[in-house]
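Sequence, please.
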């Protein structure tokens, strides 16, 4: 077994290389500086961000797009606290990510040294696991363990905090012996992937007898690479599929069994089908409050089959009739085998299919047409953008109205083409996430759909995109408001618009984009939309930002008011009064 003497900094980079890391996102500083020196000689591409939050979201975007863990590296203190938001975002959305943070020398920990903070303490509740490395010799093992934990079972972020003295080649504490044969030491960590065949049989029996079943599909389907298995199950059983915000693309929107997105701003058919069902087959979904609405009024007649890799999710929100712990792809394949081998039953579901068809016909996603003299309709912009881009375009979004419109009006027929912040709802997510996805797939079209509120939080990463030659494209739906907050204030606070108005003139987004090395455009008229999008699609040597000036009064519909039952779904005014 070959061994080699080296310092902890070199060992850290070598350990990352051994895990197959091809890119990392980061920003150097004092405590992590010794690790940045060996990067010069490494095969790993380093993308220098302009803010540590950007590094974390880029790593997330990379992970969403590829399924491989994203990697970020920052220094101690304020750098570590700046990456707390991406860690929490990744934790809630089950995104595999490894973050390396610098720390003050080991002997100085606890003395309030310069740029010291309790990074492992701060991040304990928002990481799947975290490490404080105390010996240089432990670095290869801990890095291997970090990647294993991040990518197995329910994926999630793992943080590795490393004191400066054990990576500094001038310090005797950094001396270590490298070996290629490193064994992990993770007692008690044994993710269960196999599923119980008796529970599969019980679930199949419920499916056979259900008259109004719905497949309720969450982001776990994508994490488990289970899109093909899901489609096979849906087609075998003929059961309609709803895809949550985190599962968009897991089942093709164009498929006849696709019912659309459920939730607070889901479409009428998806929300109502779940509400009226007698069986919900929850696959990699967690009964989020944005999906259930008022919990005691959610799908009151439905029995529940719940499949999840994480035992903590089973029964956390809604008690299942059949709870199956394990890998959701393996569970779906087992269900498929059971139903195809022993029959899908002969329950008559024609009335259910007829009701669903009626909802689809009466309550499609729709908005009132543009009137000359008014500002652009944001939904129209997304539709035109959707129709002018390749089917496998990767779309990222920030959070708010533009996120909902994008998830509603884009057609997602391929998995891993929709990247957004679901559980945490992080404004500013879109642009850095798009950069991470574009770094992963430089040949693919990557569009960030953003709002002017979100854009102003992380727009500086467009400098990163320009300098690093990552030519993403940004569709800025600019209504000069914090749009979703404005919508709530209009509907529920008697139009008392408190601290929600953003300047329509400052900043000048076109000039700002150009100052960051991007091509900037501004569009005010519907006739200009297609021309601007076509021009943007032709540009591939720098980022593009299009400032679409859209109507501030436009609302996201349908909508389940906060605290209301899904049966109280609000539709646009022109659809009100139709028979339900």
């Amino acid at each position: 077994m070959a061994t080699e003497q080296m310092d902890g900094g070199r060992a850290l980079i070598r350990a990352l290389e051994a895990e197959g890391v091809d890119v990392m996102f980061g920003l150097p500083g004092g405590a992590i500086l010794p690790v940045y020196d060996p990067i010069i000689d490494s095969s790993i591409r380093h993308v220098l961000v302009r803010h540590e939050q950007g590094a974390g979201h880029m790593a997330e975007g990379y992970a969403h797009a590829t399924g491989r863990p994203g990697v970020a590296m920052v220094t101690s203190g304020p750098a570590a606290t700046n990456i707390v938001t991406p860690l929490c975002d990744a934790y809630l959305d089950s995104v595999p990510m490894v973050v390396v943070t610098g720390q003050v020398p080991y002997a100085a920990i606890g003395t309030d040294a310069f740029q010291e903070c309790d990074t492992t303490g701060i991040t304990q509740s928002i990481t799947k696991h975290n490490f404080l490395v105390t010996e240089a010799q432990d670095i290869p093992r801990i890095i291997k363990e970090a990647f294993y934990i991040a990518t197995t079972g329910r994926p999630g972020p793992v943080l590795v905090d490393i004191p400066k003295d054990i990576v500094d080649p001038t310090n005797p504490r950094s001396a270590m012996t490298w070996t290629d044969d490193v064994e992990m030491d993770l007692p008690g960590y044994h993710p269960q992937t196999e599923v119980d065949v008796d529970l599969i049989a019980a679930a199949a029996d419920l499916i056979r007898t259900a008259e109004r079943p719905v497949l309720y599909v969450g982001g776990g389907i994508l994490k488990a690479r289970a899109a093909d298995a899901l489609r096979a199950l849906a087609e075998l059983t003929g059961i309609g599929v709803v895809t949550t915000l985190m599962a968009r693309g897991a089942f093709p929107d164009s498929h006849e069994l696709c019912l659309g997105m459920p939730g607070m701003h889901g479409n009428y058919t998806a929300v109502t089908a779940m509400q009226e069902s007698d069986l919900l087959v929850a696959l990699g979904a967690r009964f989020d409050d944005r999906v259930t609405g008022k919990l005691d009024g959610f799908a009151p007649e439905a029995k529940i089959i719940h499949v999840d890799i994480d035992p903590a999710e089973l029964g956390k929100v809604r008690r299942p009739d059949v709870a199956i712990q394990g890998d959701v792809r393996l569970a779906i394949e087992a269900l498929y085998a059971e139903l195809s081998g022993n029959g899908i039953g002969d329950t008559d579901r024609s009335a259910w299919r007829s009701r669903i068809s009626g909802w689809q016909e009466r309550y499609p996603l729709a908005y009132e047409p543009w009137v000359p003299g008014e500002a652009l309709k944001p939904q129209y912009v997304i539709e035109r953008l959707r129709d002018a881009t390749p089917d496998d375009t990767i779309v990222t979004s920030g959070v708010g109205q533009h996120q909902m419109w994008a998830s509603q009006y884009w057609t997602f027929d391929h998995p891993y083409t929709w990247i957004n912040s679901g559980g945490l709802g992080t404004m500013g997510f879109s642009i850095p996430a798009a950069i991470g996805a574009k770094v992963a797939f430089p040949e693919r079209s990557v569009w960030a759909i953003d709002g002017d509120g979100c854009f102003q939080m992380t727009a500086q990463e467009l400098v990163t995109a320009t300098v690093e030659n990552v030519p993403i494209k940004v569709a800025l739906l600019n209504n000069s408001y914090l749009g979703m907050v404005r919508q709530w204030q209009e509907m529920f606070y008697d139009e008392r618009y408190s601290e929600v108005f953003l300047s329509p003139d400052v900043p000048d987004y076109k000039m700002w984009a150009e100052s960051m090395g991007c091509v900037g455009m501004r569009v005010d008229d519907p006739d200009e939309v297609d021309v601007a999008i076509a021009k943007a699609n032709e540009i591939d040597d720098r980022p593009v930002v299009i400032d679409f000036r859209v109507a501030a009064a436009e609302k996201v519909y349908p909508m389940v008011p906060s605290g209301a039952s899904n049966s109280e779904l609000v539709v646009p005014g022109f659809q009100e009064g139709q028979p339900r």
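The chain is about 35% helix and 15% strand.
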